[in-house]
Amino acid sequence: MPFETLKYLLPKTLKRAGIKKQPETAIVLDRAREYLAKALSDEFTREITPAYVKYRTLTIACLSSAAASSVSLMEEELLEYVNKSFPRPMIDRILVVS
């Protein structure tokens, strides 16, 4: 029985377990939080939280409808800002939940 080295098995196992995506997801959420803090006032940034990434969709939770509409208006710029730090786009769309 031939042995396979650990350096070849580990990336496959991490990918299968979904662990490899977690650091990238954390970076996406951090970049989104950073852009929203730069683009909006402090009043709105307290009401907006980038929640999670699932199926290449960034979900953002908003406490007020005014904050949700302001995030919806800047969706394209936010997508561009988040995706520019990765070699391939990490998110395709944004879902705003209020």
Give keywords.
alpha+beta; single chain; 18% strand; 3-stranded mixed beta sheet; 98 residues; 5 helices; 3 strands; 54% helix
Q: What does this entry look like structurally?
A:
The chain is 54% helix and 18% strand. It contains five helices and three strands; from the N terminus they run H-H-H-E-E-H-H-E. The chain has helices at 6-17, 21-39, 42-45, 65-73, 75-83, and strands spanning 48-54, 57-62, 93-97. The chain has a three-stranded mixed beta sheet. The longest helix has 19 residues, at 21-39.
Measured as a percent range, the helix fraction is 40-55%
Specify Rg, calculated over alpha carbons: 17 Å
Biggest sheet layout: 3 strands, mixed
What is the CA–CA distance across the termini? 57 Å
Strand content: 15-25%
Strands across the major sheet, in which order? 1-2-3
Gross morphology is elongated
Low-confidence stretches: none
Q: If helices are DSSP runs of H or I spanning 4 or more residues, what is the number of helices?
A: 5
**SSE sequence, one letter per element:** HHHEEHHE
Structural class: alpha+beta
- Report the mean per-residue pLDDT as an integer: 82
Number of strands: 3
